[in-house]
Amino acid sequence: MPTIYKRGEVYYIDYRINGKRVRKRIGRSKQIAELALKDIEVQIAKGEIGFIQEDHSILDFLKQYLEFCKTNHSPATYRRYSFIIDHFVAFLDKYPRIIKLSHLKPKFFEDYKTWRKTGEQESKTFKRGAKTNTINMELSIFRAIFNQAIKWEYLKENPTKDVNMLKVTDAKKPRFLTKDECQKLLQECKEELYPIFYTFLNTGMRLSELLNLTWQDIDFKRKKIKIQAKLFWHPKTGEREIPMSQGMQKLLEKLREENKVRSKFIFHEKDGSQLKTKLREELIKTTKRCNFPEVTKIHSLRHTFASHLVMKGVDLPTVQKLMGHSDIQTTMIYSHLTPDHLVEAVDKLDLTD
Questions:
Q1: What pLDDT was estimated at residue 234?
Q2: Domain extents for the chain?
Q3: Alpha-carbon distance 144 to 158, whole Å?
Q4: Cβ atoms of residues 114 and 68 within 8 Å
Q5: When comparing pLDDT for 122 and 132, which is higher?
Q6: Higher-confidence residue: 47 or 98?
Q7: Would you say domain 179-344 falls under CATH 1.10.443.10?
C-alpha cells in the first residue's frame, strides 16, 4: 500500500507497482500529500497506474503479432493484416526515431491517415491515394493490433484510442441484383452452379462460409443453417444462424439425396473434396451473358440478399444479425433503401391525439 513519509520539510509518497518501488516528491504540505496519497490509491485500484516491464520494439511486436494472427485467424485475414502492416512499416520508415511501442502517439496515426489519403506512398507495391473506407478499415485493424499489445502487457493504452475515423464521402452504394436479374442469373448459369448461386442469393453467406459449409451445419428440424467454427476454419465475425426459406430447404434436401460420394462438404468437387471452382470467374462469365457485366463480385450476391431484406421492410439490426456484421455501421450502407419504410413509420406516429 502507498505510504507517506517526510524527509526534512518535504513529504513523499512511497509505493510499489509491478514489483518496482516508486518514490514521489509531493511538497511541504501534509494536506496535499494526503490528497495525493488517496489519488494514487484510487489509480492503483483502477489499474490506471503502472509500468510496462519492457518497452518493446515496434517491429518486433508486429512480427509477434503476425505469428499470433497466423495461428488464430483465417489465411485470408492473415494476408489482409500482413498487407496493412506492410503499409504501416513503410510509413514508419519516415520516422527513424519512432522505434518503441511507447513512441506511438495519436498524432502519428493522424499523419498516417494523411499519408494514405494523399497517395504520397505511391510505389510498385502501393497504389496512389487510398479510399476513405480503406483508411478507416486500416485504423480499425490497428486498434485490434494494439489492443493485443495491451493484453500482452506491452502497452498500457492503445495509441489509436483518440484517433477519429475519416468521414466517408467517396463510398459507392453496393450493386445488387433486381428480382428479374436474380432469375436471369439462375437461368443462364451452368447447371452445377445453380445451387451455389441460389444459396448465395437466399442466405447472404460470405464466400468462405459457403465453401466451408458442411452437413453438420444444417439443422433440418429447426430449419436453420449454422455458420459455426470447425477445426479447419473459423467464421470471420463469430457464429450465427440463418433461417432456411422453403426453397432453400428443398434445395438442400435434394443435394443431400444426390451426395453420392458422401462428402462432408455441401458444395464439393466430384471426389468429395472442398470446392475449388473459381466462382468469381464463373460469375463474370454468367453476368456477361445476362447483360449486366458490371456485376463482377460474389459479394454482390450477398449484397442482393441484404438489399432485398431491407426493401421488404426488415429492420437493420435484424439484417445485421443475418449478415453477421460485427458493427451496425456496416449494415447502414443499406439504409438508403428504406425511405418508404421510414415514411410509413412516421405516419404511424401521432402524439397530438
A1: 86
A2: 3-46, 58-151, 179-344
A3: 9
A4: no
A5: 132
A6: 98
A7: yes
